[in-house]
Amino acid sequence: MKKLLVVIPLLAMIALSGCAWEAVAKVPPYQDVFMTTGDMKDGDYEPLGMVSAMRIELAFSCLGVLPPLYPMIGPQSQDLLYEQLAKEAKKMGANGVINIRASVTPMAIIPGLLWLPTVNMTGMAIKM
Predict the structure, then answer these.
(1) Which among 34, 43, 60, 81 has the fewest CB atoms less than 10 Å away?
(2) Which domain of life is it from (predicted)?
């Protein structure tokens, strides 16, 4: 009975607790490779192929039941992904990446508690 007096308030506290998150929109850092999430006018570039960058990050669930509703991808992670895209584009001889898209795929390590979201960025390598 005494255990219930401890467990019930603890469960209520966990169930009613909220999660704080912050939406971060970041412009790609200045580099010698032009990068944008948009498109360019046809004829202004030569498409060379698709490039992609991937990062895996550890994330804890807010309520202990659902995957994190907002990916744990902060400015540092975005900078690393943009750098990886730029390196891949340079290997192909490109000087720009357009139509950059990001996607997050959550994978449960311990369902309801520990998640390993995979953040993937893709784009079209171009030569201007």
Answers:
(1) 43
(2) Bacteria
